[in-house]
Request: fold
Amino acid sequence: MRILYLLFPFFLLLLQGAAGSVSVCRRRGGVCVFGGCRYPTTAIGRCSRLHYCCKR
Reply:
């Protein structure tokens, strides 16, 4: 149970790093997707290391 107290700040740091990129992606008209963009969408940038900004 104590491990949850240690993991919680770690997840907050991950979310904080990606928050700025998400707003930039949405301003471009895109959506952040884990892994990669699927067929009808194309990558227009990155939200984080594993998330791509995709747009139709």
